[in-house]
Every structure is written in structure tokens, then in C-alpha cells.
Automatic annotation (TrEMBL), chains A, B:
Coiled coil: none annotated. It comes from Streptomyces albus. PANTHER family: CHROMOSOME 23, WHOLE GENOME SHOTGUN SEQUENCE, THIOESTERASE DOMAIN-CONTAINING PROTEIN. It comes from the Bacteria. Residues 154-284 form the Acyl-CoA thioesterase-like C-terminal domain. Gene3D superfamilies: Acyl-CoA thioesterase, double hotdog domain. This is Thioesterase family protein.
């Protein structure tokens, strides 16, 4: 074996946490206590809007810098007005710092065209330390039944070609379960389900902050219910239940109740060790 | 038929919204814009602590007074420190008032023994008008399979007698599904389920505010998992999906994942017209 050919053909090394697209695009600079500056990346857009999960991860990172505990145990975001790429200010307000958990609010603000500051998102979260939790697991939850990654559909299989893939799709290695992508061929299952294997495109492994993005990264379950329009999120709550093991995640989303023009999306995320690492629910407009 | 006997034997007329224990005990006086005074009633205690659902209803009422829309579409509470009966101040902060929905934060504060003010609960909510929603319902959710009320267990059936019934139990007409109260006889099902018929004891019909209480009114699912200790709520999110029809509610709660000392409780509330009127999830400490 010679060195040269393997050097040429070797895939790029996976990005490490701290040195990846996701980390660069969620960088938060704390200007003073409670005031944080960010530059939101256009790389996480779906159509004209930035993805709500990406924005939640940015807010989650600001809260991590404002609180004594590192991990979001439970975080809720209310989306007020559309957030665009570019500069934004996050203001954090600590409600309580306890021994094992701490709680804070945050708001993300951008300047409108006339220079006035408008609040885009308001968040409320409780942080703790996932590594300090006991190893006790007594769960009746089981990972979703899904084909292996190689048998799932990636963005490059999209019948509309690369132009049909939203910008955020290039940040992700997303492989949809064939059973939940009939909608892309005009034949939704009408069960309100969406399942996928999910990793970051540059190979960075998941962590609690990237889970906040991952719960909102799949196509809306509305597509599988035969809805074609956009499904804007009103509110999204994520519980991070364990630190994810390295490797691709499985994300399973279900909608039970579409009524009065609103629907809920319940997501579960499973890591490569078959552990339920996050649960989320969002209320969205159909 | 004579009038006199029927006057003697007639049951008391059911309380109407606005004139019931629940309405009196959630009364909020707005002192100035954004500042509201309440007197929390000891009638909603479970042990020494006031019930988190009752407190959420009080905060929900303050937010209704602070916002242009009447109904909580989605509301999240983080419980910081134990709330006791007596006076409290609620401060509300409106994030955005839109045409169809409006969003605000709120904090509930009480004075500690040394006179300093401590925040007990912080809330984030989006309100709208349930009556303005379309009648469209496309749901795969089905009401829980439960025996009729008469075959369920009420507080008066408690093997420990009336003394074992928490104070809040006297505000409610709660009838537990026999399948989910084996724990009271030392034989929990270990499935993590709790189901009950629920009404207010004085006969007042449910409304969106009382649903905020109802999602947290049953014994914890932890009892059905064989846990015996208290299960304090860290965070509770409620989606009110429709205005409930008059009559008793059915509440079904499940826990899938008890891990690392935390568990989630997912509740669904169904009204007498078989409509899913509320969904909630809470994160609690085991």
C-alpha cells in the first residue's frame, strides 16, 4: 500500500464540535451581562425564512453563556415575527440560578428597515447538567421502525433536483424513510408522520445544542397529511433528556390533531445507542 | 306535585362560570398596566404546595387581562420555587400584539419571610380567540377507552378515608379509571398511565382557563410506575385546541420515558362532545 492514493481518495475528516458549520453559524458574542450579539447565517434558510430549530440553537447557546449550567433541559420558543439572516441581538434575563438547575428568559431582536428594533423570538428555558444525571433508564419508548440509512432518500434523490432542496438541506445529511416521503411524489400517506436519519453534513457529531435544531429539521408532517402550504411554527418546546452518543440520529415526528387551522408536531430523537435523547412538541399553523 | 319537597331535595344548582370556587380563587386585580394582584387560595393545595395547574390558571387569567385576545393557545410555565397560599404579585410583559395572536411573559412573585420578593413561576404564552378558528377537524386522535363515570373511583372511595384526600381533591369531582389506580392498593400497573373523568366539584363547566388546571389535576403517572415520592414539575406546557363543551372532561396521561431522574407526563383532555380540547406535556423530577 502506498500513501499517495489513499491521501487523494480519503474523505475529508468529519468536523469536530467547535469547528463546524453549525458551531460557526451559532457563534454568540456576549457584549455585556445579558446582552449577546449574533450574526445569523443565510445557510439555514428554508425559502426566505431562517429555520426555527437553527434559531432555537442560537438562542440556546446565548442562554448557555448566561447561565451556570451547560445543557438545555427544557426550552420553549414563541416565534413572533420572521427572522432574517444578518445581525441580531439576544437579551437574556435570569429568573433563578439554583444548585442543580437554572432558568432564564431570552429575546432575539433585529432592526427593521426603519431602524426600529423588533422582537423576533421569545424564549423561556431551564438548564442543568446532563452529565450529573443518574444512569437510571426505565422507558417504554422504543426507537422508530425504520429502514437502514442506505435505503432512505437523501436530498440528492429529490425529484425536483438540487434547486428544489432548501438552503438548509445543504447543511444536513438527511435521509427520509421512504414510507414518509410519498408526498414528494404526490402520494402522501395521510398518517401525519415523518421519519429520517439525520446528521450534520460536515460530520460534526450531535450535542444538546444541535438537538434543538434537529427537532425542527425535517419536512413538516403537514406534507404527509396532504397539506401543501407552509406551516409556520407558533411555539416549540424541546426537552433534552440525555447527551447524544456520536453518530447519526433518528428523528420521528407525528401529528395527531389538525383542527381549527392548527396542528401539533411531536418529535422524538434517538441516538446511535438507541437512547431517547430529545422529545419536542410544536404548535404550528396549517 | 307539591313545591316544598322538591325544594328540599333538589341538589344545589351548578355554579356558573364567574360564580364558582375556581373563579373566586383565580381572581386577578390589575393594579396598573402589567401589575396584577392575586390572593392564592389554600383550597388548591396538595400537601403543603399549591397545585401547579391551579397556579397556571391564575397566571393565565392575568395574561388574559394583559392581552387583547381571550384564550391561551399555548402557555408554558417554569416552576422556580414553591408557591404558598396568600398574596402574590403577577407582572406581565407583552412581547407582541398581533391581529390574530398575541404573546407575553409573566412572573409570579411572593414575599419571603425576610420581606424580599422571590419569583415563584415564570410563564410564556401566546393567546388567540378560539371562537375565531375554523371548524375544520382532521384528527387521528381518539378519546381514551374508559369505563363510564359511575364505574370509576372517586375520592370518597379512597382506602385511606377523607384524611388521605389532598385539599385540592375537595374542589374536584375526580373519578379515576380503575385500571390506573392499582397503585392506591399497592399494585401499580407499571405502564405509566393515569385516566380520569374530571369536573369541578361545584358543577361549574370547563372553559379554556380551567383546562390549564385540569391537565395537572390527576395523581402523577409516577404512582402507576411504582414511584411513591413527590414528582415536582419543572416545566408545563399546555396547548388549548378548542373551547370545551359543557359537561365532564376525560383526562388521559401517559409517561413513556423515565430516565436520569426525570420523566415527561403527556396529557390529553377530551370534552363531552368527544373533541380533543387540550394537549399538555410536563417535565418533572422523579
Amino acid at each position: 500500500m502506498s500513501d499517495a492514493p489513499s491521501q487523494v481518495t480519503a474523505p475529508p475528516a468529519p468536523a469536530a464540535p467547535g469547528d463546524s458549520e453549525f458551531d460557526r453559524d451559532t457563534t454568540v458574542r456576549t457584549r455585556e451581562a445579558g446582552v449577546h450579539e449574533v450574526r445569523l447565517s443565510p445557510g439555514w434558510a428554508i425559502g426566505k425564512a431562517l429555520n426555527g430549530g437553527y434559531l432555537l440553537a442560537v438562542l440556546g447557546r446565548a442562554l448557555r453563556q448566561a447561565l451556570p449550567h451547560p445543557d438545555p433541559f427544557t426550552i420553549t420558543a414563541h416565534y413572533l415575527t420572521a427572522t432574517v439572516a444578518g445581525p441580531a441581538t439576544i437579551r437574556t434575563d435570569v429568573a433563578r440560578s439554583g444548585r442543580t438547575v437554572s432558568t432564564a428568559s431570552a429575546g432575539l431582536f433585529q432592526k427593521d428597515a426603519d431602524g426600529t428594533e423588533a422582537e423576533r423570538i421569545r424564549v423561556l428555558a431551564t438548564y442543568g447538567d446532563l452529565d450529573a444525571l443518574s444512569d437510571d433508564v426505565r422507558t417504554s419508548a422504543r426507537p422508530p421502525a425504520m429502514p437502514p440509512r442506505e435505503q432512505c432518500f437523501s436530498a440528492t434523490d429529490h425529484p425536483g433536483g438540487d434547486a428544489a432542496v432548501p438552503e438548509m438541506g445543504h447543511r444536513l445529511d438527511l435521509r427520509l424513510d421512504p414510507e414518509t416521503c410519498g408526498w414528494a411524489l404526490g402520494a402522501p400517506s395521510l398518517r401525519g408522520e415523518m421519519r429520517a436519519w439525520l446528521a450534520l453534513a460536515d460530520g460534526r457529531d450531535p450535542d444538546p445544542l444541535s438537538l434543538l435544531m434537529a427537532v425542527d429539521a425535517l419536512p413538516p408532517t403537514g406534507f404527509d397529511l396532504g397539506l401543501t402550504g407552509w406551516v409556520p411554527t407558533v411555539e416549540l418546546t424541546v426537552h433534552v433528556r440525555a447527551r447524544p452518543a456520536p453518530g447519526p440520529l433518528r428523528v420521528a415526528i407525528t401529528t395527531r390533531n389538525l383542527a381549527g387551522g392548527f396542528l401539533e408536531e411531536d418529535a422524538e430523537i434517538w441516538d446511535s445507542a438507541d437512547r431517547l435523547v430529545a422529545q419536542s412538541r410544536q404548535l404550528a399553523r396549517a
